[in-house]
């Protein structure tokens, strides 16, 4: 059955090959880790500016064993800064940052570059999982990666094209082929769902009612309540249903992908496999029931890059939230933590048994080439690396085939009934024959009695005739009588021998019939016994079902009770919420009042500010610019210096009146020049100079920077 290896077949990492447990009982357990295949798609026109990004090509010397980026693309002058720089089909991968200055090594189950086609990707990992499902193991195949990295292409591809069709059509083909060549009775059914904005929808719901589905748990098994499960008999009918379901899938055009999936889609194929065992009642009929879950996840993307707005923004938020919940679960599983937060999102809850549970899992981590995608590629690789360490323990899912068991028991009961009926008919016909033979014996006896009577009468007649002829036993008459008596004795002997013969025949017939009756009775008894046994088994099965039903009813009652409690708690909470709403309303009213108050205050403050600004502008207009002040300072100091010299000269000659007059004039000029100056700094300097010169404080700065004259400037002199 295994397909011939392709020329550039990727070989799986042997270290993660399953180690099978004991199979002496016919059951096997597989311990392995999640298999991870990294797929790097080719550079496409949709990558726009990134067309100049690194091109990947096979190593010319060893085209089937290694794939490398062209060495030139690692050169700093190329546009490549950070992304996958090299990888091999055996799973060794190097991620380089900053034009190859920093590198990080990864090891996965396998890697697929742009050279590898859809068949290679399927054969490398998915095929094994699919075969396992046919042997009774649950299996999961997930496509993970940023938007536009090729997840939908990998899972679905182009259905009608034999070389570009994806994992899903290939898996279905493989399963139907295996079923056809098996001697077992294999049946298939499919379900198809999507998780859009944290809500689960049935994609095969013919009524198109878009009803919201919930995940439920029963006997530690998770299932999606009311999800359609449609029996399928061929790949074509399956693909037709999937295509119809796809019409219901949420997609949209984003900056990064013209047909971007806005939801996570999961196809669940249920395989039931029964061994042909016609008389299996005593051995209990068994069947394997396994699921293959194939998931096309929605792509992660940055809000800014995607250009998402409004509804798309909400979708993106839900996608990123569930993917980060998936990342958290994988991290917790990889770290073997006690608590795994499966309940954080619908996606993780749905995949609870897949991740680290009873399911063999393969993850295809899809990456986009291109310089701008380095960051996203890196987080995909880190996620994939964590996933590759998660352990799973898968076992064959064998169940008691109640349906078959019931049918077989019914057949047995029907057979026993038929046998009993047959025996009853035989007994009735035997009874009839016995009655008939009894009648025949009675008829023979009646005949014999009639004959005896007639003989007795004849004998008596003869005896009377003889007596009339000549007395007892004398002469010829005596001879005649003797002769007649001889005849009579002969008759009597014959009659007796006939009677003995008849009695023997009768005895023999009775013995024969008794024997037959005994045989039929014992057959009837054993049939009855068988019947009772089958009835007992049926009764036990019925009691088992009744028990389950009873438990279901009890659980149902409990559920109702919980619902009632929840209902009253919800009512209480609603009351509380209503009360709080009233408080909030009050608070809102007072907040509105406060708002008004603040608005008035703010308006006042704004007008005050404007006023101040106007004043400020006026003041600024009134003020002399710094340059002018400096110029004036220089002028002042020069003038003052000159005046100081002059005053000094005059002080020496101040004894005569003329000199005194001159001093006064100089004082007046100083006073005058002081009055003309409006700059506080300049005035302060002048004041200081006057002090130094011993003139005292004739001037002072007025509030607001204006210079005011001293009340009596003369006092300065
Ligand atoms: N290996 C490949 N070879 C050729 N074309 C590819 C390959 N992988 C992806 N593509 C093309 O790239 C485009 C984006 O791929 P696809 O829609 O599968 O991405 P996606 O990861 O599912 O995106 P999203 O998360 O947005 O739904 C499609 O046009 C697809 O045909």
UniProtKB/TrEMBL annotation:
Using the UniProt annotation, give all residue ranges assigned to the region (Disordered).
Answer: 1-32, 652-679
List where this protein forms a coiled coil: 406-447, 503-565
Q: Which GO terms describe its molecular function?
A: ATP binding; microtubule binding; microtubule motor activity
In its keyword annotation, does this UniProt entry include Nucleotide-binding? yes
Q: Give the compositionally biased regions (Basic and acidic residues).
A: 652-677
Which PROSITE patterns does the UniProt entry name for this protein? KINESIN_MOTOR_2
Q: Where is the composition biased (Low complexity)?
A: 14-29
Sorted alphabetically, the keyword list is: ATP-binding, Coiled coil, Microtubule, Motor protein, Nucleotide-binding
Domain Kinesin motor, which positions?
33-390
A cellular component term, taken from the record's GO annotations: microtubule
Superkingdom classification of source: Eukaryota
What InterPro entries does the annotation carry?
Kinesin-like_fam, Kinesin_motor_dom, Kinesin_motor_dom_sf, P-loop_NTPase
Q: Where does ATP bind?
A: 145-152
Q: Which GO terms describe its biological process?
A: microtubule-based movement
Read off the SMART domains from this record.
Answer: KISc
**Does the keyword Coiled coil belong to this entry?**
yes
The record ties this protein, via Pfam families, to: Kinesin (PF00225)
Q: Which family does it belong to?
A: Belongs to the TRAFAC class myosin-kinesin ATPase superfamily. Kinesin family.
Protein name from the UniProt record: Kinesin motor domain-containing protein
């Amino acid at each position: 059955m295994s397909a011939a290896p392709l020329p550039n077949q990727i070989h799986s990492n042997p270290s993660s090959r399953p180690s099978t447990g004991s199979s002496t009982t016919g059951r096997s357990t597989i311990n392995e880790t999640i298999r991870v295949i990294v797929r790097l798609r080719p550079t496409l026109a949709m990558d726009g500016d990134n067309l100049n990004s690194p091109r990947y090509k096979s190593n010319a010397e060893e085209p089937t064993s290694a794939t490398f980026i062209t060495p030139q693309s690692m050169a700093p002058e190329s546009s490549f800064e950070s992304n996958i720089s090299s990888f091999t089909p055996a799973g060794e991968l190097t991620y380089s940052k900053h034009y190859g200055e920093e590198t990080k090594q990864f090891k996965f189950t396998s890697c697929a570059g742009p050279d590898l086609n859809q068949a290679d990707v399927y054969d490398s990992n998915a095929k094994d999982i699919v075969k396992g499902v046919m042997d009774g193991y649950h299996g999961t195949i997930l496509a993970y990666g940023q938007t536009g990295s090729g997840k939908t292409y990998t899972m679905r591809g182009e259905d009608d094209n034999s070389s570009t069709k994806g994992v899903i059509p290939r898996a279905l083909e493989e399963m139907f082929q295996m079923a056809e060549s098996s001697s077992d009775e294999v049946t298939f059914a499919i379900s198809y769902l999507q998780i859009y904005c944290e809500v689960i929808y049935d994609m095969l719901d013919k009524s198109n009612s878009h009803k919201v589905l919930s995940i439920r748990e029963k006997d530690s098994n998770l299932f999606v309540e009311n999800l359609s499960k449609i029996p399928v008999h061929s790949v074509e009918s399956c693909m037709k249903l999937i295509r119809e379901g796809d019409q219901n899938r949420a997609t949209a055009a984003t900056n990064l992908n013209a047909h971007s999936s806005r939801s996570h889609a999961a196809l669940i194929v249920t395989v039931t496999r029964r061994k042909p065992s016609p008389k299996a009642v005593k051995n209990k009929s068994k069947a394997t029931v396994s699921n293959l879950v194939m998931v096309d996840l929605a792509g992660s993307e940055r809000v800014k890059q995607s250009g998402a707005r409004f509804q798309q923004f909400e979708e993106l938020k839900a996608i990123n939230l569930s993917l980060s919940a998936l990342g958290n679960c994988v991290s917790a599983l990889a770290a073997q933590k006690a608590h795994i937060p499966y309940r954080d999102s619908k996606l993780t809850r749905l995949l609870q048994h897949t991740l680290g549970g009873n399911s063999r899992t393969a993850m295809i981590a899809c990456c986009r080439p291109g310089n701008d995608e380095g960051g996203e590629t890196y987080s995909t690789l880190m996620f994939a690396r964590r996933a590759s360490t998660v352990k799973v323990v898968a076992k064959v899912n064998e169940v008691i085939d109640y349906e078959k068991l019931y049918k077989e028991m019914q057949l047995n009961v029907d057979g026993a009934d038929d046998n009993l009926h047959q025996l009853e008919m035989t007994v009735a016909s035997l009874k009839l024959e016995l009655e008939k033979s009894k009648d025949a014996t009675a008829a023979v006896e009646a005949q014999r009695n009639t004959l005896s009577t007639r003989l007795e009468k004849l004998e008596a007649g003869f005896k009377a005739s003889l007596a009339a002829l000549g007395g007892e036993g004398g002469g010829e008459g005596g001879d005649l009588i003797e002769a007649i008596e001889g005849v009579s004795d002969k008759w009597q002997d014959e009659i007796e021998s006939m009677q003995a013969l008849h009695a023997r025949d009768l005895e023999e017939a009775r013995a024969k019939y008794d024997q037959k009756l005994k045989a039929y009775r014992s057959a009837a008894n054993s049939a009855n016994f068988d019947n009772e046994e089958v009835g007992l088994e049926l009764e036990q099965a019925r009691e088992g079902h009744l028990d389950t039903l009873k438990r279901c009813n009890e659980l149902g009652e409990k559920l109702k009770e919980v619902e009632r409690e929840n209902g009253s708690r919800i009512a209480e909470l609603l009351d509380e919420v209503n009360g709080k709403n009233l408080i909030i309303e009050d608070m809102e009213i007072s907040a509105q009042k406060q708002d008004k108050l603040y608005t008035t205050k703010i308006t006042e403050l704004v007008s005050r500010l404007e006023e101040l600004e106007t004043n400020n502008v006026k003041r600024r207009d009134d003020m002399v610019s710094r340059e002018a002040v400096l110029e004036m300072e220089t002028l002042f100091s020069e003038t003052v210096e000159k005046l100081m010299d002059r005053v000094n000269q005059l002080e020496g000659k101040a004894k005569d009146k003329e000199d005194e007059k001159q001093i006064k004039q100089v004082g007046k000029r100083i006073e005058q020049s002081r009055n003309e100056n409006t700059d506080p700094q300049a005035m302060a300097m002048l004041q200081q100079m006057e002090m130094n010169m011993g003139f005292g404080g004739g001037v002072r700065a007025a509030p607001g920077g204006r210079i005011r004259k001293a009340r009596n400037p003369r006092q300065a002199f």
